[in-house]
Amino acid sequence: MRLAPIVLFFEQDAELAIEMAGESSRTTHGARAAIDSCRYFAGLIVGALRGAPKATLLSSMYCPVPALWERLPLHPAVVSVAAGSFWKKRPPEIRGGHGYVIDTLEAALWAFASTDDFKGGALAAVNLGGDADTTGAVFGQIAGAFYGLEAIPKVWRDRIAFSAEIHAMAERLSQGAKSEPVSECFTRCL
Known about the structure:
Blueprint: H1 4-10, H2 14-25, H3 32-49, H4 54-57, H5 68-71, H6 76-82, H7 85-88, H8 101-113, H9 118-126, H10 132-147, H11 154-157, H12 163-179, H13 182-189
């Protein structure tokens, strides 16, 4: 899942951010479980960006848009994760995704729920094994939105290639939907 830029762009309209995150999945992962995982996860990122407490984000069926999951239901496998499957399992039941979005989402949320900082959660996520880079990337999106940039260890941030460009793009994306049509910002931002 690579949807944090979508959420940053549309964050001012949570329902649109959730919809566009689902739509972004269709280009490479068109299965309903993948699309709905992106929708659910986008809601978590919106909530984190808006300062929702961790307990609220990880509560059963959290969504920043009231009654959205009743109007536009999630795939049953996503409902299981959103209802808190990650609270009830421990490794080896929780495992790094092996190409299956539900396992990846569950693993990333387990790492977020079971740790108290970015570094500890990132290490927990990638040490699950499997598709560790994907699990770590998914964890990084929610943890980054929740803890903020400064919570990422400086030594890690200093090693990111093109970090200044990435930071500038994130700033432009966060201003995008507020100031210009979608097509113009995507052309300019990307």
